[in-house]
């Protein structure tokens, strides 16, 4: 097998693959700083990854045409083993979970992702009363929202600095009170069968008024709807919406029980309630289970590592 890896500087190859073959709304995560891109000569597509401890972490699945995905994934596993690392993956959708299961991964549901279908979004919907209240609170506090350039708010923001190599792909909306930025959200492109944008990075300054992020996101939703965009993907929340019926055939029962116990009792150790509440306030039209995968058996260390990785880009 002829195998080569593409260095971080070859991110343009990954962008091209994402535009042509990307289906997972979270695939853009693999274009962040620190990721490299695995491919095999003679195939199309890439496997974004980065080394984290004893693992090669892969977010969002293989970015390739269907007929090349399994070959690329099996080659990636060999690549990881040659380097004495274990291949792991996060933010997988059901189709990707089944592919990883076929390739020898232990796969468990680890959370859910939420998406809003913009042509059907109506702010006056009775189910969005909580959202309207939050936005009203922010506006009464003086929050004004506008789309901004990356350079306007990137200085001093570690999260945005970490994706500067892909900043041309982002849309940024910021909420200000006077000259002070109190909240901002960066949106990344999503391609495939549910194209649109991903609610990628968000920041709310300490002391920002309630509803600041909601006000920023509402302004973006309205702008994207006017552009006839189809979907706003609110992203993946670990430990949300866990259900036994969503598990795939290679699920590890002990891991599934541990994740559900953590979801029920582990808010102090792994807080996700606020993030989940923020996503649910938009009354999403689509809720999908998300999965983590670990090649071979899943260890407690792998679970902790995978959950940590899904908390950040």
Q: Summed up, what is this model?
A:
With 313 residues, the chain is an alpha+beta fold. It has helices at residues 11-21, 66-82, 94-102, 129-140, 150-153, 158-161, 212-226, 253-265, 273-280, 300-309, and strands at residues 3-6, 36-40, 47-52, 55-59, 86-92, 105-117, 144-148, 171-177, 180-190, 196-204, 231-238, 286-295.
Alpha-carbon Rg, integer:
19 Å
Strand order of the largest sheet: 1-2-3-4-5-12-6-11-10-9-8-7
Distance between the termini: 32 Å
Helix content: 25-40%
Structural class based on helices, strands and sheet pairing = alpha+beta
Shape designation:
globular
Order of helices and strands: EHEEEHEHEHEHHEEEHEHHEH
Can you give the mean pLDDT?
88
Number of strands: 12
Low-pLDDT runs of 5+ residues are: none
Structure annotation, total helices = 10
Strand content: 25-35%
Structure description:
By secondary structure, the protein is of the alpha+beta class. The protein is globular, with a radius of gyration of 19 Å. α2 links the parallel β4 (55-59) and β5 (86-92). It has ten helices and twelve strands. The chain has helices at residues 11-21, 66-82, 94-102, 129-140, 150-153, 158-161, 212-226, 253-265, 273-280, 300-309; strands spanning 3-6, 36-40, 47-52, 55-59, 86-92, 105-117, 144-148, 171-177, 180-190, 196-204, 231-238, 286-295.
